[in-house]
Amino acid sequence: MLVPVLARLRANGAGAGETARPPKRHRHAPGDRLIEAKGLAEAIDIEVAQALVVPVPSPRPATLFGPGKVEELRAMLEALGAGLVIIDHAVSPVQQRNLETAWNAKVLDRTGLILEIFGRRARTREGRLQVELAHLSYQKGRLVRAWTHLERQRGGRGFMGGPGEAQIELDRRMIDERIDVIRRELERVVRTRELHRKGRRKVPYPTVAIVGYTNAGKSTLFNRLSGAGVPAIDQVFATLDPTMREVRLGSGRRVMLSDTVGFISDLPTMLVAAFRATLEEVIEADLILHVRDIAHTETDAQACDVEAVLADLGIDTVPAESRILEVWNKIDLLSPVTRKEAQAAARFHAPRPVLISAATGQGLDALLKAIDARLGAHDEIMTLTLPAHEGRLINWLYEHADVIERSDDEEGGVKTRVRVASEKKQRLLHQLRKAGIELP
């Protein structure tokens, strides 16, 4: 069994190598990031022997850590008998090679660890292809230094490289060929998914996508609202492959509810790119539910990470223009005092979030009403008088609209006031024309 030492890097309170980037509004505390990194390792059944924060005042290009710290960690690894070191930060190919040589152990950085988790969790063929594409893109960038143990001097007539250079070119070509194959297969997946979306538009049902930081309770909420059996466990990246279910709201409106992969801080760029086909469901959604673990100490920082990924996908996160509804989950884990504080904070938050507990069901009725209200902002109230023999049309109204009032006259005619969703108005007009009914 591989036994890792988890190291979180820090430089004056920031992650090593992060000082050149613009400051974020919210930063994750090193202790919380260390807990998260440990959770990531345990998600793929790695036994963590030691987890610690290692200050790095000045990152070294060759080894990241200073020589004294490298030797200190080598002695610790030897004492623990550890064969794997997970560094919760980006590690360059040169740094990885040098550290593996110095420690005689495998070194995995944050991106590599997340790729391992995704590779373990992907279930569908699409998910496995997306993970493989991300993994190959990651490995391709690390080939340049992978064969430095082989001869690289030019020989012969001066135009042929040594065996090291040949091996690099061979590996790069094999990776490029496999990437091309995967991309072609994923293009077919994208076309199929777009056909499914076009089919849903013909119905059409609005789409509500659930997004959020990993382990925020998205799948638990999805199961509560839809009655689905998506695995909902206390584990990061428990859901990779998207799931969709139909849900009927109080107004009679039907919606397609979509559960998606969880986001995380410093999500590898190649993963966002690889999973773009899956995330198209979020991009195309009529309403996005941003589920937040309001009981987590890092909830604000996690929210910023999610918003950053949504912005990368081209989704407007400005409150006045946004189609995002925040859902503050896990209120059952708050103390009575903290819950009152959260409720007070929600009143000053625009647009106003909905406080729920997906685990207990508390607040779900309010959430469904909020979804209905957001999707029904452009609904239209219509007054219709229908002849008694149009039972089929009357039944259609009850199935596809919200019948507010109904009265029957002496001749058997039916007078109704109905609320019609904007996306269904044209279908209603078509039904009325077929029945020869003119609007007043």
Short key terms for the protein model shown above:
six-stranded mixed beta sheet, four-stranded parallel beta sheet, alpha/beta, 4 domains
Explain how this protein is built.
With 440 residues, this protein is α/β, with parallel strands linked by helices. It has 4 domains: 4-117, 3-Layer(aba) Sandwich (Rossmann fold), CATH 3.40.50; 122-186, no CATH class; 205-375, P-loop containing nucleotide triphosphate hydrolases (Rossmann fold), CATH 3.40.50; 380-434, Alpha-Beta Plaits (2-Layer Sandwich), CATH 3.30.70. Helices cover 42% and strands 17% of the residues. The strands form 3 sheets. Strands 6-7-5-8-9-10 form a 6-stranded mixed beta sheet, with helices on both faces. Helix 4 runs antiparallel to helix 5 and helix 5 packs antiparallel against helix 6 (163-202). It is elongated, with a radius of gyration of 27 Å. The model is unreliable at 1-5, 7-25 and 145-162 (pLDDT under 50).
Order of helices and strands: EHEHEHEHHHEHEEHHEHEHEHEHEEH
What percent of residues are in strands? 15-25%
Question: Which CATH top level class of the largest domain fits?
Answer: Alpha Beta
Seen as an oligomer or otherwise, the chain set is: single chain
Mean pLDDT: 79
Radius of gyration computed on alpha carbons: 27 Å
- In angstroms, what separates the terminal alpha carbons? 76 Å
Number of alpha- plus pi-helical segments: 14
- Tell me the helix content: 40-55%
The CATH superfamily of the largest domain is identified as P-loop containing nucleotide triphosphate hydrolases
Supply the number of structural domains.
Answer: 4
Poorly predicted residue ranges: 1-5, 7-25, 145-162
Q: Give the total of beta strands.
A: 13
Give the CATH topology of the largest domain. Rossmann fold
- CATH architecture field of the largest domain: 3-Layer(aba) Sandwich
Q: What is the 3D form?
A: elongated
| Sheet/helix structural class | alpha/beta
Largest sheet: 6 strands, mixed
Strand order, largest beta sheet: 6-7-5-8-9-10
